[in-house]
Amino acid sequence: MDRVPNLPPVNAIRVFETAARLGNFTRTGETLGMTQAAVSYRIKLLEDRLGFTLFERKARHVELTARGARLARGTSDAFRLLERTF
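The chain above was modelled as a monomer; its predicted structure follows.
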């Protein structure tokens, strides 16, 4: 199977989608079996790859930026489609 050009790793997309839905990197890590630091690192790598910030980091939670919110809607839709497909 050929790799889709410019598509970030699916695992990074999964981490992003979960963090966007939960609004908290610690809870995201608990949900995915990762540490909060690993979640934060994956999000930072994804942001670096995309060239824009996905989240505003707050004291006890994170909030999606406008661009992050647009991306979150699409990734959530894509994962729901995958769930229905499988």
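Residues 54 and 68 are 4 Å apart (CA to CA).
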